[in-house]
Amino acid sequence: MEMKKGTLRQVLLITDGCSNHGEDPIAMAALAREHGITINVIGILEENSPEYHQKGLREVEEIALSGGGVSQIVYTTQLSQTVQMVTKKGMTQTIHGVINSELQQILGKESTIEDLPPEKRGEVMEVVDDLGETMDLELIILVDASGSMEKKLATVQESLIDLSISLNSRIGYNQFALFAFPGKRDETELLIDWTPKLNSLTQAFTKISSGGITPTGPAIKAAINEFTNRRSRRRLITGDEEEYSEGSGF
Amino acid sequence: MKKNTPKGQVSKLNSGDIISGKWHRNEYSIIRELGSGATGTVYLASGKGGKVAVKTGHDSMAIISEVNVLKHFSRVQGRILGPSLIDVDDYVMNGRQVPFYVMEYLKGDSLFQFMKNHSEEWAGILLVQLLTDLSMLHRAGWVFGDLKPDNLLVVGPPSRIRWIDVGGTTQIGRSIKEYTEFFDRGYWGMGTRKAEPSYDLFSACMIMVNLAFPSRFEKKKDGRQQLKEVIRSNPLLANYQSILFKGLYGKYQSAEEMRNDLVSSLNNKGRFKVSAPSQTSSGASRRSVHKKIKKKKKRAMMFETVLLGSFLFIVYLFYLISQSM
Ligand SMILES: Nc1ncnc2c1ncn2[C@@H]1O[C@H](COP(=O)(O)OP(=O)(O)OP(=O)(O)O)[C@@H](O)[C@H]1O
Ligand SMILES: [Mg+2]
Fold it and tell me: Mind naming one GO cellular-component term on file for this protein (chain B) (predicted)?
């Protein structure tokens, strides 16, 4: 099986409740998937959060499902480890999906990795592991900055620095960008422009003024636009296109 | 972890259930559950060749990944490292295909159970054994990754540490696949998560710290300083202070180097303990063993045990040293 190395495009959405403004986030996640972008979601739960709050987090699962990614609901204390696990699993799942669709082209409609005999599956898994380790990654982090998140932002910040430690231990290159929603003026605000390392977060979150609305859908849309613009900018500069998963039809 | 596969959770197996492999057609009869974790559940089962451990899980990628590691282990010459791999297959239950693998069943005690019934110096000896295995693993190009008491068993007699759960085992130069915060140098702000021998040595030191603090503790602002203070102020850890600091700060180039330091420090301590046996009787672990015996009798027995223990211990050290030189 030949696989060309390229760039994995992932979104990590961190939120603590349901959206209440703008486009339907589940629809936006489906749109992202069509662009070859995977949406992973983390729902933050507070230790003694009320029942209605937990219900609100059901949206978290649905966004990830429709965005082809992974979701997890956690208490703030487990955030760091979850953030890196969800991101890595999301990357693996994306690669897995791409390989499955290639297998279907070779072996026919219904084939997936699970249909291969265990020995062959092992070989495919080595390819998946290999790609997960060596592919370049572009990650957009969307942080819910609505009022209820205010107290949790310090932990979020810590977990993102921790994520950067994990991802920068990989062989492949990383680029991160960080958006908050709602922003000061717009629904979404770019807090950190593309950077290979997330250690400059300390100032980033102090710029946020926690607003009342939760525009999750618009935030996902902004991420799609950012990826698309970035790609066309890059194509203008380098003249080539080596993006991964484009048109792979999964 | 909620994953977006239509397969969902796998239902638990019960004692008496028989699973049969779809590809290799081997049957395994479930005896009982051994444990479960993030990746799946491990059962004790009986197969053609006797008792085995069967690991099943919903995440076929994670299962296959572990199988790949176990396969690589069997290629490492000389000593056996992880449990040996016996079979890999799928079973079908309620119309759902579930991946599983079969490995050698390791019968033993958890690290904490073992230490409850043994004297303090065993902590050092087990660590020496662990470092011996790690050095083999590292030479073969792998790092264990998720090193912690949960993933270790003491088998025997003769007592020997063995590792289980190779889910974190990573090729050198890559990023650590799985880790647990308390044992992870990234968490303590003391290094990257790149798979290199020093990553495992950090965790090995933290296992020692965990033995001294069974309920663990959380990181405060400055992790490095915090660990330093913890080690200095704890009697068990202070014994190994210089080795622990070197290991935690990534100063050891290899597991052998750390192992050799530890062996010579244990050698010295062995001699020290014969002449001052009352030192060890303060161990909390001992107290629980001989609870019911009267005080005087207790002290005399303790003295004997320590003497005998120290003697065996020194013989054992010679054995260890001759074995791995
Ligand atoms: N080969 C074996 N022999 C005996 N017991 C075993 C064996 N393998 C696993 N176990 C037992 O099963 C438990 C769970 O196994 P394991 O750690 O592999 O699961 P896991 O799902 O990977 O857990 P986690 O990733 O959370 O550590 C172990 O803690 C151990 O008690
Ligand atoms: Mg385990």
Answer: cytoplasm
**Which of B26, B86, B174, B217 has the highest number of chain A CBs within 10 A, making it the mutation to test binding with A?**
B174
Under DSSP, is residue B163 helix (H, G, I), strand (E, B) or coil?
Answer: strand
Residue B292, pLDDT score: 39
User: If you average pLDDT over every residue of chain B, what do you get?
Assistant: 81
Give A97-154 pLDDT, tens digit per residue: 888 888 777 777 667 777 888 888 888 888 888 898 999 999 999 999 888 888 888 8
pLDDT greater than 80 at residue B87: yes
The per-residue pLDDT of chain A, averaged, comes to: 83
User: CATH assignment of A7-100+136-238?
Assistant: 3.40.50.410
Between A71, A89, A166, which is nearest B186 by CB? A166
On chain B, the residues whose CB falls within 8 A of the CB of A167 are 175
- CA of A125 relative to ligand 2 center, distance in Å: 21
Among residues B87, B89, B133, B146, the one annotated as catalytic is B146
| C-alpha to C-alpha distance for B181 and B202, rounded to whole angstroms | 12
**pTM: predicted TM-score of the whole model, two decimal places:** 0.81
- B55 is annotated as contributing to ligand binding: yes
Active site residue B184: no
By the CB < 8 Å criterion, does A69 face chain B? yes
From A71, A89, A122, residue closest to B68, measured CB to CB: A122
- The DSSP line for B99-146 is EEEEEEPPPEEEHHHHHHTS-THHHHHHHHHHHHHHHHHHHTTEE--S
Residue A175 has pLDDT above 70, yes or no: yes
- Residue identifier of the C-alpha nearest atom 19 of ligand 1: B37
Closest ligand 1 atom, CA of B165? 18
**Sequence-separated (6 or more) residues with CB below 8 Å from residue B325:** none
**What ipTM does this complex have?**
0.81
Q: What is the mean pLDDT of residues B120-142?
A: 91
Phi, psi torsion values for A187, nearest 5 degrees: -60, -35
Q: Which amino acid is at B117?
A: N
Show the domains of chain B with their CATH numbers.
18-104 (3.30.200.20), 111-289 (1.10.510.10)
Of B61, B176, B195, the CB nearest to A96: B61
Q: List the structure tokens of A210.
A: 């926690």
Is there a contact between A125 and B176 if contact means CB atoms under 8 Å apart?
no
What is Dmax (Cα atoms) for chain B?
67
Query: Atom 26 of ligand 1 has which residue's CA nearest to it?
Result: B37
Hey, is the C-beta of A41 within 8 angstroms of any chain B C-beta?
no
